[in-house]
Description:
Distance between the termini of chain B: 14 Å
Order of helices and strands of chain A: EHHEHHEHHEEHHHEE
Oligomer: heterodimer
CATH architecture of the largest domain in chain A: 2-Layer Sandwich
Number of domains of chain A: 2
Number of domains of chain B: 1
Number of strands of chain A: 7
Largest sheet of chain B: 4 strands, parallel
CATH class of the largest domain in chain A: Alpha Beta
Helix content of chain B: 40-55%
Strand content of chain A: 15-25%
Structural class of chain A: alpha+beta
Shape of chain B: globular
Strand content of chain B: 15-25%
Number of strands of chain B: 6
Shape of chain A: globular
Largest sheet of chain A: 5 strands, antiparallel
Amino acid sequence: xxxxxxxxxxxxxxxxxxxxxxxxxxxxxxxxxxxxxxxxxxxxxxxxxxxxxxxxxxxxxxxxxxxxxxxxxxxxxxxxxxxxxxxxxxxxxxxxxxxxxxxxxxxxxxxxxxxxxxxxxxxxxxxxxxxxxxxxxxxxxxxxxxxxxxxxxxxxxxxxxxxxxxxxxxxxxxxxxxxxxxxxxxxxxxxxxxxxxxxxxxxxxxxxxxxxxxxxxxxxxxxxxxxxxxxxxxxxxxx
Amino acid sequence: xxxxxxxxxxxxxxxxxxxxxxxxxxxxxxxxxxxxxxxxxxxxxxxxxxxxxxxxxxxxxxxxxxxxxxxxxxxxxxxxxxxxxxxxxxxxxxxx
Lengths: 239, 96
């Protein structure tokens, strides 16, 4: 059976990355191309591209740790684009059997985490602005990430005495922190924690070296210190 | 007076959008009789987030106090958002 092969141009369009990125990925082994009959032209199987594009956590974590480029379909440079894509996800999720009511809570927590990235980094993005937002509703996973200031640096503006990432993340998820007026109290992450605690939704969240894992039947809210340090934030929602 | 919140959109997320909605609503509020109740109808809203609601409902509550009435909704995100706002603001909304 002849498997359809895409040219490098078609593959670049499929993934939403540049030709140079594909050439680089071929050279460093991240996404190896097929070279027909020992020639120099690069070809790709559509199926391989589909599988490659589906490892959301890998793309998001490699981006926030090492700045590695990811497929354009997952990039939301502005909050408006994020909202539009989130609404699209909502339209699909609302039709999924079993999610006729739960969809709104999943969209709520995704929206809160994503909106936080934009709201807290407006005008202060250290380098790349915007967020990674990818989802696979068949695999029931949503991944969000940003290269922003992260929770500790953000909360220190209102609570200068916060000393480490674990403490800051704990405060972010459990307290209503007020900045100086007219800045409003943050309340989104408190609700995210409550929704995840009460529903069949699992959450992994990391900022700095702090990690939150709420998973399975007897999930509790707990912040632990992990091995890696990331400046921004990364969240994985599974349901 | 009854306000169909759906007029601001079916997916009410983001602080920015909540702020815009509140500003846009001010002109309607100016012509609003001082003794009348404002009923907030959530039908048709698919998702209401605490960020949007904090920028729209919280200042409305300050402006209208117990003239603001929220109509009951079956939507899970509406229920959860109202609950967290009450907790954060230490103020209860009137619900019908």
